[in-house]
TrEMBL record:
It comes from the Bacteria. The chain crosses the membrane at residues 12-31, 43-64, 76-93, 113-131, 168-187, 193-213, 225-247, 253-271. Keywords: Membrane, Transmembrane, Transmembrane helix. This is Uncharacterized protein.
């Protein structure tokens, strides 16, 4: 088994810590407004940076499946940018204190404590990023070499070619509107353009470029990433529109929500079209390809069995209901795969996940044998296709 529960919980805790520390720092400044409180302005900026970085990191953990190896490097990059930008802002507080023109108020002890908490959270955040990036290096090299040498049929090559425009849009075009909006809003200010306005849009651009490059053979992961990136980009467009138009708080809130929803919906729709161009209709040509093939459960469309090139994963994306999970087993751990029939509806424990169950309805299904006498019963009408692709990719994995 490739997923370690304690490690996943620590990663998630690091993101929550960064996000919470940024919220606290921002809150301290918001409840102590003062024109001369220059240190508070710097703390607010650092807090904003860490809120964005922490929220993006937390959303990446929710949107990306555990076997994706792009998360480590992207987490590290986001953390370094947040630390450098926030640290640069905080380093100028001493200059503000020494200034006599505005008579600034020194940073309060509570602000200093929270700043230290933020620094500790950033260190934990970065340490886990470095650790995962080091662990991912051998797998990344092996995957890249295998993808280059992978034989692809003419039909699969045609599917990938048709979706190439979608991938280019998701990687490079989708993050551009927030950058343009930041430039327009920045140059519209009387004080001149401030480079910090480009920080989050640039981070979004880099994140999209890395994410959709890493998942180019996993079209099922495009929709979640596109929806998240579109919502973040739409939110920032709403922020810059509010700055330019000088709207009141109620109007600004409606603009934020509307732009986020529109951006997330439109980008997800485009990503879904590209996904369907690659995965639908399912044919056995996809078996001998590097494309990760998802199969949806018959009675629960959010329960999916994802057949990759080196591992098999079972995931359920129902975060609002609190029963979301994702568990991965290497093909070396898969003992068998066979078509079966479920006689009556019943509830089973999900092997490999603590305290999670799934309802298996009567009808055709696939039984997958797992280590320690475990098994998955996956309801599907595509039983022969599922068994065929698992057995074929298991043999290919064993051969490598």
């Amino acid at each position: 088994m490739e997923v370690v529960g304690d490690m996943r919980r620590l990663k998630l805790a690091s993101h929550v810590g960064v996000f919470a520390s940024g919220v606290v720092i921002l809150g301290l400044w918001a409840f102590r407004p003062s024109d001369s409180y220059d240190s508070g302005i710097q703390v607010a900026f650092a807090g904003f940076v860490m809120v964005v970085v922490g929220l993006l990191g937390l959303m990446m953990r929710l949107a990306a499946r555990d076997e994706d190896i792009f998360v480590g490097p992207l987490r590290l990059f986001a953390t370094i940018c947040g630390a450098v930008t926030g640290g640069y802002a905080l380093s100028h507080t001493d200059e503000a204190w020494e200034s006599t023109s505005t008579d600034p108020v020194p940073m309060a002890p509570t602000d200093q404590i929270v700043t230290y908490i933020e620094a500790i959270a950033m260190l934990v955040f970065a340490a886990w990023g470095v650790y995962n990036m080091i662990l991912a290096v051998p797998a990344r090299r092996a995957t890249a070499a295998r993808d280059k040498a992978w034989p692809v049929t003419a039909e699969v090559a045609d599917r990938v070619r048709r979706s190439r425009g979608t991938v280019v849009f998701l990687r490079w075009v989708m993050p551009l509107p927030p950058i343009v909006a930041a430039l327009v809003a920045g140059f519209a200010e009387d004080d001149g353009f401030e480079i910090r306005l480009l920080f989050t849009p640039s981070l979004l651009l880099v994140g999209c470029a890395i994410y959709f490059a890493r998942t180019r053979f996993d079209p099922a992961a495009w929709t979640a990433g596109a929806a998240l990136a579109g919502a973040v980009g739409g939110f920032h467009i709403g922020v810059y529109l509010t700055v330019l138009m000088m709207w009141d708080v109620r109007s600004a809130a409606l603009v934020f929500i509307g732009c986020s929803a529109a951006g997330g919906f439109c980008c997800r729709w485009i990503a879904a079209r590209g996904r369907d161009q690659v995965l639908k209709p399912y044919t056995r040509d996809l078996v001998d390809s590097p494309i990760e093939v998802p199969f949806a459960s018959t009675h629960d469309r959010r329960l999916t069995l994802n057949v990759g090139t080196k591992a098999l994963s079972l995931s359920r994306d129902r975060f609002i209901r609190g029963d979301r999970f994702s568990v991965v087993f290497s093909f070396a751990d898969i003992t068998s795969a066979e078509v079966t029939t479920v006689a009556a509806t019943h509830t089973l424990h999900v092997h490999g996940v603590f305290n999670q169950t799934m309802t298996v309805h009567s009808g055709p299904a696939v039984r997958i044998g797992l280590p320690e006498d475990g098994e998955w019963i996956f309801p599907t009408d595509q039983g022969p296709d599922v068994v065929h692709i698992i057995e074929a990719r298991k043999q290919a994995f064993a051969a490598t």
